[in-house]
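A student in our group prepared the protein record below, which I am reviewing. Here is the record exactly as it was handed to me.
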Amino acid sequence: MTIPDQQPLGSPFSASTTAEDIVAGLDLSGKTAVVTGGYSGLGLETTWALAAAGTRVIVPARRPDVARAALKEVKNCEVIPMDLADIDSVRSASAHIGDRLDRLDLLMAVGGVMATPERRVGPGWEGQLTANHFGHFTLACELYPLLAAADGARVVVNSSAGHTLTGIRWHDPHFRTGYDKWLAYGQAKTANALFAVHLDVLGQGDGVRAFALHPGKIITGLQREMTLREQIDRGWVDEHGNVIDTDFKTPSQGAATGLWAATSPLLDGRGGLYLEDCDIARVCGPDSLMDDGGVRAYAIDPDEAARLWDLSLAVTGATPITG
């Protein structure tokens, strides 16, 4: 991927496209997918859509009983325990998946957290970076042999326009010198985008392509750590919690870009790209506003991506991908 590749394609879909629109007429029988966060919000919409099109879906879940209840009507779907913030749990889930599958066509990294209070996990890692990035990084590395065994596997990573808040804080990625929940979220979302860039570099020789995306602004369980007052002050909802921001999408619309990334033939032979509104996003300037759309150059920089990959490999001890 190069900066010139980061240009809209003229997709037939748009910001108003729904998950149902993307999978309409698709037959994904025989395909297998792992969907993190696949039992709530955008993940639930993703699971429903893939399963409806014939995909066998595995949903790793921190709360497996809640997940099974949410997915009880979804056919061809299995829930297994996994906590993205616990790397040993991710390894255990990966081994379980490896025992059940001989290949994996889609890895949908939808799960995550946003703007949480300061939490230290593992050996003192910052919680949002761990759950959003290190967990998914480890999962992808451990499942890579299954992805490489498929015919044209894709890895789709939910980033966010929140990546515009900051690049990787190489001097202090774990906020040892003072915590800011929004900068921590922004760094984690930049990490998601960079992860897709370098995974695509390593995987394309095996036919494994990776994409990151901004799903849009959507009210889901992702806001659970925010108070109602915070959401009112941002103009998202009214005092009753009803969405009033006209830029917000429905959960089905929010899931559409990820499903497009997973299935669109327009993306055949492409990868390492950042997507939004069911198309490739343009590169935005350093002073652009978050809601203006696009991707910052630092979030798709191949050198930054390689540096983050090396850091992530060193701290997680994940199985290296030789590429």
